[in-house]
Amino acid sequence: MVRKLVALLMLFLPAQLRAELARRVLGWDIDPTARIGRSLIMVKHVTMGPESSIGPFNMIRGLDELRLGTGATIASRNYIQAHPIARQILARQNQEHDPSLILGNWAKLTVGHEIDASDRVEIGDWSGLVGYRCQILTHSLDLVRDIQITAPVIIGERSAVMSGCILLSGTRVPSRCIVSAGSVVTTKLTKEQTFYRGNPAEAVRELPDLRIFHRTEEDARRYTM
Fold this sequence. Notes:
Strand order of the largest sheet: 2-5-8-11-14-19-22-24-25
Largest sheet: 9 strands, mixed
Mean pLDDT: 91
């Protein structure tokens, strides 16, 4: 109950007081340079590194952990949750899972994405969900055994998942890859520095050494992905 009241209070406090309240009352680890916008955040523990930020109008709830590395950003209008019914079912099945969202250094979520973090979602350094309306699903129904199962979803370093993509439970995007808009990732992709496209997403071609693969902190401060 205390966490819910604090989460609601943070919606109305001035920006400079939100992080201070979270540190003192909830025990969150918020760097003095991190910023929290008017978002509803109901998470057991939050860690925000230097220059990281959570923008306005996000809903983040039910996670055990939310961790943002240096410069990591959750922009706005993102819906992130560990599904409460899935959590109850998994507990009854004694299935281990890690309801968390981990953003590496300078990783990004842009606008309007939906993330089911019933198991771990990890977005590597300098990577991101870009554009609009991607979906990540970490829980699913095992049709053979008729039980709910979960598996992590991992995006490697310096990769970009474009608008409207869907990443299913247990999938992985390798480092230095681009997943084309509207693609559906159904397996663990394996080839680095590759352009993927389609439903299911498949390797189309090897990528040249793109400038986006070499972004610096100065670039990150000037541009959004």
